[in-house]
Amino acid sequence: MSRHIIYIINPVSGTRRKSGLQKLIAEKTKQKNIPFKIFPSVESGDYSFLSSMIKDERITDVVIAGGDGTLSQVVGNLINENVNFGVIPCGSGNGLALAAGISTEPAKALEIVFKNKARAIDGFYINEHFSCMLTGIGFDAKVAHEFAQQAKRGLRKYVILVSKHFFSAKPYHFTIESNGLKFSTEAFFISIANSNQFGNNFTIAPKALLSDGLLDVVIVKKTAKPLLLYNLIKQILAGKLQKMETSLKLPVIYFQTKQLFIENNNSAPMHIDGDPAETPENLKIKIVPKCFRLIQP
User: What is the pLDDT of residue 220?
Assistant: First the structure.
């Protein structure tokens, strides 16, 4: 089957300059004799305008040069189209790409796209919003909101913001229902992950897999700040999954589920794949197994 690619380039994601990226993409794709079009990312995150083009011009692949947020928006809009999705990681964290083993070097990532080995992976919905990798509620989302406003991004800037907010962080009150149990807790943050990556090779849910049909939920409860750091490090290194009912008394709760309900009683902030999002009071979060095809090694 002949291929036809749409590239979407986010000009502001991450820290890498994009001036030479479009040229690289065009040159390498022409060398492969593959028809292609290049579009910039759109600020609204609405890519539904591409649906008719995909059908009319028989587009086979949509390749996103950007970060996890852009990838999530594109896939969420075009998830029902018969295309493969590729990634040229250009974001600040690139969590999905790292979890899938995709190189962060543009030329190497392009070669993966050209080899066209696509496999179906999971996604999930937070109410009506699609997420391809990770959603956070609480402290990490507060950092993500401020991070999105920075003129310069990158790991160093993210670490500075985490340090700035860490010792002033306040817990939020949540009521959580999953796996037949309902409980309330005060927590600094809740991470719902389909990937073992927080970004930049930082692991938040060590047992998470891209296509296991399960969400990994990490809840960091209210505790003394030095103890919080210790338990986070211990959790990351050990990666020990617990049954929900046996982990409720631990400082860090870590379990798997197909869906959960969260009452966000203190209006804690939320991010979806690193991008700030509005947080409703009630959240229904549900896995969608193998809902899109990702080109990967």
Answer: 81
Please give the structure tokens belonging to residue 153: 């991004």
Q: Both tokens of residue 156?
A: 């160093």
157 three-class SS: helix
Global pTM reads: 0.86
Identify the CA nearest to 139 among candidates 268, 282, 252, 280.
268
Q: Which two tokens stand for residue 231?
A: 């338990």
Q: Which residues of 278-289 are buried (b: 16+ CB within 10 A; e: fewer)?
A: ebeeebebebbe
For residues 269 and 137, the answer to whether their CB atoms sit within 8 Å is yes
Q: Does an H or E element contain 287, and which? A: strand 282-295
The ranges assigned to domains in the chain are 5-125, 129-288
Residue length of the chain: 297
From residue 76, alpha-carbon distances to 15, 100, 160, 273 in Å are: 24, 18, 31, 12
Residue with token string 């896995």 = 287
CATH of domain 5-125: 3.40.50.10330
| Ordered mean pLDDT values, 10 residues apiece, the chain (297 residues) | 92 61 94 96 92 96 94 96 95 84 93 93 96 89 62 56 70 94 91 75 73 91 68 57 67 89 94 88 97 96
Query: Is 272 within 8 Å of 126 (Cβ atoms)?
Result: yes
**Residue 203 CB partners (closer than 8 Å, separation 6+):** 196, 197, 236, 239
Architecture per CATH, domain 129-288, reads as Sandwich (2.60)
Distance between CA atoms of residues 59 and 67, nearest Å: 22
Six token digits for residue 118: 């696509």
Tokens 């749409």 belong to 6
Reduced to 3 states (helix: H, G, I; strand: E, B; else coil), residue 226 is: helix
